[in-house]
Write a structure and sequence with these properties.
This protein is of the alpha+beta class and 240 residues long. Helices cover 53% and strands 18% of the residues. Strands 2-4-5-7-6 form a five-stranded mixed sheet. A hairpin with a 5-residue loop joins β6 and β7. The radius of gyration is 21 Å and the shape is elongated. The two termini are 27 Å apart.
Length: 240
């Protein structure tokens, strides 16, 4: 049953990868044209005679907003392409505890603003392994960001690491005190474009990308949750 579920998930990822790449390339072309025209409009607005117009500020605000939303759209297509690509991971010696420490530090301001405490329970020393540090950090960033969004305000995230010598795996667990996920939704959270966030607040690609990254690195990603009891994401990575 587990093998069937993994094969089904891999099939979804392959199909979505092709679709995502096609959409991203199609959307990028008009975005490039809009970006170019916005630059031209900005140059025109810099001319002295136009600046004297009583509507100059409104013109400038409109152009700036177009520019901002083009960038926003480009970021989405960039993520789509990243999801679609099957890049061969780099093999380098990595220290999981160090990568996690650096990743958690990136959220210091946001967690403080939201009154969310991030605690670490690291196994020391943790065996090093061969993997791709940048892709691992992307995975950890997605997971911690997801935990912060789940809590929203006033809560706790615990990041722990461990080593199973029997299975020769490293394990990272990220637990949040958020509202939890119902059993019905838990089966869908790794599906591409599935999201419980409000419209415009997420693309539904974060967990799909994380799942895909771990698959490429030879690891796995699982989730356990329940209504009103928080969520724990477990990342397993082989020791090489």
């Amino acid at each position: 049953a587990v093998l069937d579920a993994n094969l089904e998930q891999s099939s979804k990822m392959a199909a979505l990868g092709k679709l995502a790449a096609g959409i991203a390339h199609e959307v990028n072309n008009p975005l490039a044209v809009i970006k170019e025209k916005v630059g031209w409009a900005k140059d025109l607005l810099a001319e002295e005679d136009i600046q004297q117009s009583e509507n100059f500020k409104e013109f400038l605000d409109a152009v700036e907003k177009i520019d901002q939303h083009v960038e926003r759209a480009k970021n989405v297509t960039h993520r789509l392409l990243g999801f679609a690509r099957r890049m061969e991971p780099v093999q380098e010696e990595v220290d999981i505890n160090k990568i996690l420490t650096e990743t958690i530090a990136l959220f210091s301001n946001e967690s403080r603003f939201r009154n969310i405490s991030i605690f670490t329970e690291f196994t020391e020393p943790l065996p090093r392994t061969l993997s791709d540090s940048s892709q691992l950090q992307q995975d950890f960033l997605n997971m911690i960001n997801n935990a912060i969004d789940a809590i929203n305000k006033d809560g706790r995230i615990t990041v722990s690491t461990g080593h199973n010598s029997m299975s020769k795996e490293l394990c990272v667990e990220i637990f949040d005190t958020g509202p939890g996920i119902s059993k019905e939704l838990l089966n869908k959270i790794f599906d591409p474009f599935f999201t419980t966030k409000a419209v415009g607040k997420g693309t539904g690609l974060g967990l799909s990308i994380s799942y895909s990254i771990m698959e490429r690195l030879g690891g796995r990603l699982t989730a356990e949750s329940g209504k009103d009891r928080g969520t724990v994401f477990s990342i397993y990575l082989p020791v090489k």
